[in-house]
Each structure stands twice: as structure tokens, then as C-alpha cells.
Design a protein that fits this description.
The protein is α+β, with helices and mostly antiparallel strands. It is built from 3 helices and 2 strands.
């Protein structure tokens, strides 16, 4: 219920782009493209994980195929 994607985009100097999403009552899976300085992205990931969000990197060509 917390708008973590909106929050992370405002809290850190990064750009976010939702590429794919699947949300049910039990779970939400989002493929989120993130652009910015590497250090800022790392801080954003740490913040997301502190909020209980599981973060897994994927290759961009997986999304585009």
C-alpha cells in the first residue's frame, strides 16, 4: 500500500520507469528500469531493501524480448 516506486524516485536522484508489472492481493512483481549515478542507485536499492522490497538485477534484453 506504500508508493515505494514514487518515493524512491523522489528521495534519490534517479529516474524510474516501470517496464512490466504483475500485482495480486498477495504479491507485486515489478520490472523497474532505473537510471542515474551508480552510487545513487546503490543507495536507492539499500533503501528499498530496508523497506522489505526484494531487489534482483536483470538484463535489459530480457525485458525487450
Amino acid at each position: 500500500t506504500t508508493p515505494v516506486i514514487w518515493e524512491v524516485g523522489h528521495k534519490f536522484k534517479i529516474k524510474t520507469n516501470v517496464r512490466q508489472a504483475s500485482v495480486t492481493d498477495e504479491i507485486g512483481i515489478v520490472c523497474l528500469e532505473v537510471d542515474g549515478q551508480r552510487a545513487e542507485i546503490k543507495k536507492a536499492i539499500k533503501w528499498l531493501e530496508s523497506k522489505g522490497v526484494k531487489v534482483e538485477p536483470i538484463e535489459i534484453n530480457v525485458i525487450e524480448s
